[in-house]
């Protein structure tokens, strides 16, 4: 069985460690000057060299060369995930007082140290504080925030950083040359980017693609990693910023990507990456709608229904782009609709918001019915928080003496509005407009998703809104 590339090309000395020069230089100087600490803490993301540096350091303090096959009785490596109980740490605490059998220092490497129980940390604390002179502890973890401050304060703390794309690509090129892997520069860059700062992960991906074809190019890497072609992603992003893109075509494009096996979480991640790069390049302005889109894309992978959430996020952004592009849209409501509702509704002229308005900081209380109060609150929310407005306008509102009850058809909307930050915004604004303190209450009633619509409007704008409504089970249509 062949050895994995990431193990075969694991650094054997501090000089070979890539991307952590701020740490390796300090450790080399400490070893040379014999200014060693009794405890080291190595923290940082996965695959950046923490365990490798711990092993190299354990050998270097004992003036030994390091290799994967190295095995010494006085260098003890412990996986805290499997040995996290207090009994195991008590046993370790008793053994540390036994002098080394062969080497100058007995070195304990405790990997994933954050997995220890609270009792185990307490048992380890005293030993870390006053260890025997012949013992050195090296702790490693990806989750620094899970460590007690009392443990951190008794160690020399070294924080590893993600490996840069350029350093990762350079290392991949060195390995590819030694392994005689014919791979293009663009493919190496894609592997380095997809490693997300983990050199180990990127080398593992290179190991995965090396036997796929005699010549590995960018398309080969995309196929193996399950990444959609760049042109399909660009078409999707261009559609978000084009005024004539219909919701039906946007949904169709997404369905094609889903059908090809691309996951919604991956698509959201790649779209956000491209938008972020456009912001860095200056080809895209950091408007409030762009920032909201980026924030909402982050939530897609963790959603219980990522496909539906991605559709909602992209459709909403596409609709905003259409509203911004259109200078003025006139919507006429036909007599037939008036007969159905029993109301006389005049044509309204809706002007797109091309610039931010001067928003009132303290709206005055208004008098009128609860319906008028709700419509005024919606208008204020729309001017200030467009994303919040997009959800609130789908709610049924009921004002009481001390509360505002909002009823939603879908649990996702209720959960979003119930978030502390959104709740505070709505309660403060409702209180100012009503002149009394109101507590926000939210509930879900799926029956309101199928209630009849109050108005029906013809033309291109109405067609677009109706398409969105049919996609999401008859969501309520309100005029913008």
For the structure shown, list the relevant keywords.
12 strands; Rossmann fold; 480 residues; three-stranded mixed β-sheet; alpha/beta; 4 domains; five-stranded parallel β-sheet; Helicase, Ruva Protein, domain 3
Q: How many domains in all?
A: 4
- Spatial separation of the terminal alpha carbons: 65 Å
**Going by CATH, what is the homologous superfamily of the largest domain?**
P-loop containing nucleotide triphosphate hydrolases
Radius of gyration, in Å, reads 30 Å
Cross-sheet strand order for the largest sheet: 2-3-4-1-5
What does this entry show, briefly?
The chain is an alpha/beta fold and 480 residues long. The protein is built from 21 helices and 12 strands. The protein folds into 4 domains: 5-159, P-loop containing nucleotide triphosphate hydrolases (Rossmann fold, 3-Layer(aba) Sandwich), CATH 3.40.50.300; 165-225, Orthogonal Bundle (Helicase, Ruva Protein, domain 3); 230-325; 366-454, DnaA, N-terminal domain (GMP Synthetase, Chain A, domain 3), CATH 3.30.300.180.
Could you describe the 3D structure shown?
This protein has 480 residues and is of the alpha/beta class. The protein has helices at 5-8, 21-32, 50-60, 86-95, 118-129, 149-152, 165-178, 185-194, 199-209, 218-225, 230-240, 247-259, 264-281, 288-299, 306-325, 335-341, 370-384, 386-392, 411-417, 420-434, 459-471, and strands at residues 39-43, 75-79, 106-111, 135-141, 156-159, 182-183, 215-216, 328-331, 348-351, 396-399, 403-408, 439-444. It has a 5-stranded parallel β-sheet, covered by helices on one side. It has a 3-stranded mixed β-sheet with strand order 10-11-12. The longest helix is centred in the middle third of the chain and has 20 residues, at 306-325. The protein is flat and about 85 Å long.
């Amino acid at each position: 069985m062949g050895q994995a590339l990431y193990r075969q090309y694991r650094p054997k000395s501090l000089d070979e460690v890539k991307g952590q020069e701020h740490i390796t230089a300090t450790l080399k100087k400490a070893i040379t000057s014999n200014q060693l600490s009794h405890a080291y803490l190595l923290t940082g993301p996965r695959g950046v060299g923490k365990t490798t540096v711990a092993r190299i350091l354990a050998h270097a303090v004992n003036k030994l060369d390091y290799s994967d096959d190295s095995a010494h009785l006085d260098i003890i490596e412990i996986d805290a995930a499997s040995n996290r109980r207090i009994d195991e740490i008590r046993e370790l605490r008793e053994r540390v007082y036994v002098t080394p059998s062969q080497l100058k220092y007995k070195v304990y490497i405790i990997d994933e140290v954050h997995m220890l129980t609270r009792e185990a940390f307490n048992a380890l604390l005293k030993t870390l504080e006053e260890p025997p002179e012949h013992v050195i502890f090296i702790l490693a973890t990806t989750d620094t925030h899970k460590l007690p401050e009392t443990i951190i304060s008794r160690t020399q703390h070294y924080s590893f950083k993600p490996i840069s794309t350029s350093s990762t690509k350079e290392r991949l090129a060195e390995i590819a040359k030694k392994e005689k892997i014919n791979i293009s520069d663009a493919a190496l860059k894609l592997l380095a980017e997809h490693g997300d700062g983990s050199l180990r992960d990127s080398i593992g991906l290179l190991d995965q693609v090396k036997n796929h074809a005699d010549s590995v190019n960018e398309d080969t890497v995309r196929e193996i990693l399950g990444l959609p072609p760049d042109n399909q992603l660009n078409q999707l992003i261009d559609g978000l910023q084009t005024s004539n893109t219909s919701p039906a075509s946007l949904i169709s494009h997404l369905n094609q990507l889903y059908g090809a096996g691309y996951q919604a979480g991956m698509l959201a991640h790649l779209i956000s990456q491209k938008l972020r790069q456009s912001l860095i390049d200056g080809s895209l302005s950091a408007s409030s709608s762009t920032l909201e889109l980026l924030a909402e894309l982050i939530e897609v992978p963790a959603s219980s229904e990522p496909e539906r959430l991605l559709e909602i996020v992209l459709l909403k952004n596409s609709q905003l782009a259409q509203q911004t592009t259109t200078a003025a849209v006139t919507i006429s409501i036909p007599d037939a609709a008036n007969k159905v509702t029993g109301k006389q509704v005049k044509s309204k002229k809706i002007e797109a918001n091309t610039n931010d308005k001067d928003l009132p900081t303290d709206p005055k209380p208004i008098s009128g019915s609860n319906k008028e109060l709700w419509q005024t609150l919606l208008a204020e929310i729309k001017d200030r928080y467009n994303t919040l407005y997009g959800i609130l306008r789908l709610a049924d509102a009921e004002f009481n003496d001390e509360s505002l009850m909002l009823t939603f058809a879908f649990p996702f909307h209720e959960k979003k509005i119930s978030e502390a930050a959104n709740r505070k915004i709505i309660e403060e604004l409702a209180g100012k407009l009503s002149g009394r303190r109101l507590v926000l209450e939210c509930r879900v009633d799926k029956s309101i998703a199928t209630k009849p619509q109050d108005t029906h409007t013809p033309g291109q704008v109405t067609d677009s809104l109706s398409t969105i409504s049919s996609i999401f089970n008859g969501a309520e249509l309100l005029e913008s």
